[in-house]
Specification:
The chain is mainly α. The chain is 87% helix and 0% strand. The relative contact order is 0.16.
Length: 252
């Protein structure tokens, strides 16, 4: 029991040290921004389809459920406000992070794990090249920068989906839909906090994916287990961080 506790604490300490090192390598990544740009294209551009389609269908569902709920209280005109607040505060950052973990996080873990299995990381160390600075850091900062953009796209497409269902299909007044949204959504308190959430989720998901890949066993089974752990750990971490951030941001 004591040995397993010490081993777990040692792993957490090593993970915290690696996270601090990745954050400290930000100036180096900015000087070599081409590496970050390429990873942003790989992680972000290839996630656009699933983010956009998921946001659209989430907006459809919010439009339907929100209308039938608000109609009971004679507040169907507030549908736009309901859809916008639901997306920019919660669903946009959270669902985008979960999708990002499943799409981009698994590819990061598999890529790093295969590089370790192929002894490419060991070869870089032999050539006096730090694999954390050359391989992990650009991917880390690319994920951190891409996540808020994907969350914003998810929310924007979701609002469009809510407008299609509420205004075009059901017949809610378009002026009320957009007017109450504009008057009820605060840029700093709502949109700003959603951006902060997506930034924190980007750090969490990307770091979990990189750490699992870097610490994966150099076997096909080890890489597959690390990829599975990435989805599980990153998803649970996102949900836990969402509770903490929501309690600190919106409960005051």
């Amino acid at each position: 029991m004591g040995w397993s506790v010490r081993l777990k604490l040692s792993q957490w300490g090593y993970a915290a040290h690696m996270l601090w090192k990745l954050i400290a390598l930000a100036p180096t990544c900015l000087r070599r921004f081409g590496l970050v740009r390429d990873q942003m294209h790989f992680l972000g551009n290839y996630s656009l389809a699933i983010i956009s389609l998921s946001g659209l269908f989430v907006g459809f569902v919010l439009g339907l459920q929100g209308y039938y709920t608000l109609q009971r209280y004679g507040s169907a005109s507030a549908l736009g406000l309901l859809v916008a607040l639901s997306l920019v505060r919660e669903l946009g950052p959270v669902v985008s992070a979960l999708l990002f973990a499943g799409r981009a996080g698994t590819s990061i873990t598999a890529e790093i794990g295969l590089m370790k299995a192929g002894e490419q990381l060991s070869a870089m160390e032999i050539m006096a090249i730090d694999p954390v600075a050359r391989i992990l850091a650009p991917r880390f900062w690319a994920g951190v920068l891409v996540m808020p953009l994907l969350a914003a796209l998810f929310s924007a497409v979701g609002i469009l989906g809510g407008w299609v269902v509420g205004v075009v299909m059901i017949g809610v007044d378009a002026g009320s839909f957009w007017g109450q949204m504009q008057s009820g959504v605060d840029v700093w308190a709502d949109v700003g906090n959603g951006v902060v959430k997506s930034f924190v989720f980007g750090v969490t998901v990307t770091f979990v994916a990189l750490f699992q890949g870097y610490e994966a066993q150099a076997t096909p089974e080890g890489v597959s287990r690390a990829t599975t752990r990435t989805v599980v750990v990153a998803s649970l971490a996102v949900l836990a961080m969402d509770f903490v951030l929501t309690a600190s941001m919106f409960s005051l």
